[in-house]
TrEMBL record:
This is Molybdopterin synthase catalytic subunit. InterPro entries: MoaE_sf (IPR036563), Mopterin_biosynth_MoaE (IPR003448). Belongs to the MoaE family. It comes from the Bacteria.
Amino acid sequence: MNDLIRVQTADFNPGEFHDWLKEAGAEAGAIVTFTGIVRELAGGGLEGMYLEHYPGMTERALKAIVCQARERWTLERVMICHRVGWLQPNDNIVFVGVSSPHRAEAFESAAFLMDYLKRDAPFWKKERTRAGEHWVEQKASDQAAAERWKL
């Protein structure tokens, strides 16, 4: 198994995921990982965030993103883990990792996966602040980041 995709409520250990990527063997000369964490809002006051998804559809969308990356770059192993449910500031929220024979492909594919995940994966985010709760719209910057990868 060279692709590992998880959607879960439980926290994760990025080190364990790194170890799984490294198990690809000596063909993989590079491992690149990204761990996203719940950050405080610019104005402060974030009490928590709720991430909702559509089971089944979300995993299929993540697999499609991985397939697109594999069409562009030579990759050994690919790992995506995304949390759902209620999260607090500084909690782990997403992990993206790749192993590849070459560092440039590892860096580019990891950035591609994260950009497409932010734009195309069916997750919905609700923030809870002292002022109440509200659903968060997708950012224009996330749209623009994914656009740079168009062929």
